[in-house]
Specification:
It catalyses: UDP-alpha-D-glucose + 2 NAD(+) + H2O = UDP-alpha-D-glucuronate + 2 NADH + 3 H(+). The protein is α/β, with parallel strands linked by helices. The chain has 17 helices and 14 strands. Helix 1 crosses helix 3. The structure holds uridine-5'-diphosphate-glucuronic acid (UGA).
Amino acid sequence: MRVVMLGAGYVGLVSGACFADFGHTVVCVDSAAKKIEDLQEGRIPIYEPGLDALVAENVRQNRLSFTTNLAEAIKTADAIFIAVGTPSRRGDGFADLSYVYQAARDIAQNATGPIVVVTKSTVPVGTGDEVERIVKELRPDIEITVASNPEFLREGAAIIDFKRPDRIVVGANDPRAAAVIGEIYRPLYLNQAPIIVTSRRTAELTKYAANAFLATKITFINEIADLCERVGADVQEVARGIGLDNRIGRKFLHAGPGYGGSCFPKDTLALVKTAQDCGTPVRIVEAVVAVNDQRKRAMARKVIQACRGSVRGKRIAVLGLTFKPDTDDMRDAPSLSIIAGLQDAGASIIAYDPEGIRQAKALLSDVIYADDAYSCAQEADAIVIITEWNAFRALDLNRLREVMRDPILVDLRNVYPRTEAEKNGFKYTGVGIGMR
Ligand code: UGA
């Protein structure tokens, strides 16, 4: 099949490379000339494990290419995927659909024959209707069908998620679109990946419901963690105790500093806004958004408390800046609020992150950056683990303590058991690990 991927950002690039790896011919189109030039020269603009090798191999096999020229790419396409960004709209939190609608207009202007358009971007219910309307209005002469195929991949594990999905959701109101998308995903039939074919609106809502549910699960366990601290219980054991119940499931029950990233914060907010607009508010998700927002700042207070009530004039070492490991993405990362909270309270910050420092520099001010965990800890009055990178999972705690001024460890991801930290001379604070 010949596939056009409109938007060479995170989702477009990963999906395009994976479709090419299935054996399809994929052209990724983006209006950002510099990005396309970089990709043509083999430079990948994001950090995602395995993506550079996957792109290189498929380019070498002539199955994957990059261009700014949509007119040329569209001529022979069996399907055109829209994979442009849908950020939070400034001011009101609705999804900003301007890039999606621009993509629809670009497709209409360049189409030469019947087309199947598929939205992969996360878009509110009804966006497919509007995309269809835009294209039909501009090009009443061509046959167009618009489907929805939301993406469920996680940053840091995107390629494996794409190739071994729990399910593929296809929202198509007409059988032709469903057949084309089914053909594109056919290589996954071997893995027996379930394909769920629904109406377009159902597919659009499924994506938001999935992200909102996962964000709710995390927020639930975070609040239980706070309660654990108060009553002297251990949230990790509670999570295991409930997670082994198949109806609940063990995943997404790791208590921490609150969820961040490019998806959960914007998608939960957009769902809240859409539901309010429809007169059917999703109050649970409203609470999730509010609780998670407050939590990030509360984590700064937790660090201050661990530092005997004050960080004024103290040097705080931060390990991990990205919103999760194996990415360089800093969007809505808890580290941003936590560091700002500590700086407001008079602390100076030294930080280390394996991949995120370049992005962090653009978002944080007055932070010193270290080259590794041990140099970060040098002369520090406390060390705070914000992101659970593998590089921080097996630190020599004794060595770490020896270079510090004060042996305080605040572990916001519960990477280290309290006993191990204390055995190495640390004063330990985890999340949801109460003491009695
Ligand atoms: C999320 C979803 O997991 C994907 O299925 C979805 O496709 C994607 O959003 C999207 O809409 O594009 P992602 O944002 O890459 O993926 O990362 P997650 O692994 O879901 O983590 C999100 C946040 O939740 C991170 O800040 C992470 O640290 C936090 N988290 C996750 C926890 O605090 N506890 C957990 O148990 C799990």
